[in-house]
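Reviewer 2 asked us to include a model.

Predict the structure of this chain.
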Amino acid sequence: MILEMKVPSPGESITEVEIAAWLVADGDYVEKDQPIAEVDSDKATLELPAEESGIITLKAEEGDAVAVGSVVCLIDMDAKKPEGSSSVEEAPKVIETPKVESKPVETKTYASGAPSPAAKKILDEKNIQPTQIKGSGRDGRITKEDAVKAVPSMGTPAGGVRSSERTKMSMLRRKVAERLVTVKNETAMLTTFNEVDMKPIFDLRNEFKDEFKAKHNVGLGFMSFFTLAVVRALKMYPDVNSMIDGDYKISHDFQDISIAVSGPKGLMVPVLRNAENLSFRGVENEIKRLAIRARDGQITIDEMTGGTFTITNGGVFGSMLSTPIINPPQSGILGMHNIVERPMAVNGEVVIRPIMYVALSYDHRIIDGRESVGFLVAVKEALENPIEILMDNNPKKALEL
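Predicted model (structure tokens):
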């Protein structure tokens, strides 16, 4: 019996996918549930498992765009699994007779391609090997003119590999590129900046991170502080948690926070659902779970859709300051950056403090300057006074220790 394998729907509104890579060859025997292909949609890369065991016949090429529901391969379920290794006849062994290599006797004459004294001086100064130059003199002699011409000049490539490769972008990358251009063209995006003194959070983590790790089996990172600070600020400034739909503004009474994480196929943005109900432990556990699923390529479309606000951390890659781009249809995104010790004026004295620059990009069509600046200041206040604002003056209770 021949089974027709069709492209399943990866998610709502997705009508076609692209065959990113076949993991098996035409004519291979495949086991049921064995991954046979990687398919790209405009939102994620997913593995396609074999529905039954048998000999596979491929019906699409890598790079083909295929509609959801179309046949991509056939599986002959009546075919028996080959026993043992492939029955390929061994090639007859060829007995090679030892060869005696004769080394040519090197001669140091100009006629053999050696540089003249003047040419050698120029080549030595420019660290160029004579073997890299074809001499124009008699019998290949390298002249002074040859050496001068061999010296690389500004704008003249010399030596090294100069190659180019043309590869088709994945459907996911093409969709991301399209969405980014759309955001720039269709939103009134502005960015406001501020700085955060991270010392209070450093002190809290130094005091409780070991106990937190031992009890909850997850690290106490910066992201839980930022997530809870953002949740508080979104409640104070609900326009930042809203989005535009045509002539209407959609306001949310919940905070679904999208967290940008790096995956093997690029940047993924899974969502922390109802972050307003999560504790420090809850945020850290959920971020760890989603990051592992993104890293292992198991993240689903549903886990990456529906956020109301995004947090992205370019600081893990060394970014000092950036203007993050809005994740549509959301209206705001908070950019975290690296932490650098900087001189600060505190109570009239110059002290060294760990400082992070933060950036809020927002859609000015729906968020005014007062809301955007006020939101970022609220985030700053919570991060610089986490015990009072985020922990209700009880760190142990907030951290569930």
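The first strand starts at residue 2 and ends at 6. The radius of gyration is 31 Å. We have added this to the supplementary material.
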